[in-house]
Amino acid sequence: MGQVPARELGLLCEGSVELLGRMPRSSNATFLVQVACGDDTGRAIYKPEAGERPLSDFEPGLYRRERAAYVLSEYLGWGIVPPTVVRAQAPLGIGSLQWFVDCDFREHYFTLHEDAPETHAALAQIALFDFVANNTDRKSGHVLRSHDGRVWGIDHGLCFSAGFKLRTVIWDFAGEPIPRALLDDIAPLAGGVPAELAELLDPVEIRALQRRVRRMLLEQVLPADPTGMRYPWPLV
After folding, report:
1. Could you give phi then psi for residue 132, rounded to 5 degrees?
2. Residue 10 lies in a domain
3. Is residue 231 part of a domain?
4. Is residue 13 part of a domain?
5. pLDDT value at 2 more than 80
6. pLDDT at 184 over 60
7. Is the entire prediction scored with pTM above 0.85?
8. What is the SS3 assignment for 198?
9. Number of compact structural domains in the chain
10. Which helix (H) or strand (E) holds 152?
11. Which domain holds residue 166?
12. Which of 89, 98, 122 is closest to 47 using CA atoms?
């Protein structure tokens, strides 16, 4: 289990929430907010259920999948997903609150892969995470590098479908061996998942996740896309 960021989670869970503005170029209503407990403040991304665009292949409540991705990341000890909680008491009703990643937004997956080889191990780890989580929307802009050099993955509302829907820009590591340590991290999921993850997802989605894990444990290499079609749009 990764180290729990107590301050960030405290602000997300208990802080007052003030809308600062709507995030541009988001298909669903997504807001930058300030969270505050007394004099301690921070910024977060708020995705209310009320702002979700209806989808034919995902039930309403994408905020639960945002939280589920964080729970999975923390269970694995990988720290890929910024701290994320579900808040019922929020300006536009129930939704997810995710700690805001301060970064240079000119950087994204394509620029990091091209210009920052020191990030490649972290990027390959996100590729494995996305396969396990069945991420349907890993755009290049959903990979961030914070000012301290840490690589993050954001925007996980379209994950964990029971049907295989992987769409991602991270195919550069396809066929590479998965490090033994990462295989050891995911192996327990083949037999069972943490209770909180099970509560956030449908049982058929949990069983599908376990099948994906078993496949990775058997193949031991990062997946490839022989169709050349498993990309999100837009790419960035």
Report:
1. -60, -45
2. yes
3. no
4. yes
5. no
6. yes
7. yes
8. helix
9. 1
10. strand 151-153
11. 6-219
12. 98
pLDDT-based confidence at residue 4 (cuts at 50, 70, 90): low
Residue where the block lists tokens 């943490």:
194
Structure tokens at 128: 């494995």
pLDDT tens digits, residue range 101-124?
999 999 999 999 999 999 999 999
Least Cα distance to 131 among 102, 155, 166 occurs for 166
Q: What is the DSSP letter of 211?
A: H
The CATH code of the domain that includes 160 is: 1.10.510
User: What single-letter amino acid sits at 168?
Assistant: T
Give the integer Cα–Cα distance in Å for 186 and 4: 19
The average pLDDT across 147-163 equals: 97
Residue 227 belongs to a domain = no
Strand 95-99 versus strand 143-145 pairing type: unpaired
Radius of gyration of the chain (CA): 17
Identify the three-state secondary structure at position 187: helix
Q: Do 142 and 235 touch, CB atoms closer than 8 A?
A: no
- DSSP for 64-132 reads HHHHHHHHHHHHHT---SPPEEEESSSTTSSEEEEE---B-TT--HHHHHHH-GGGHHHHHHHHHHHHH
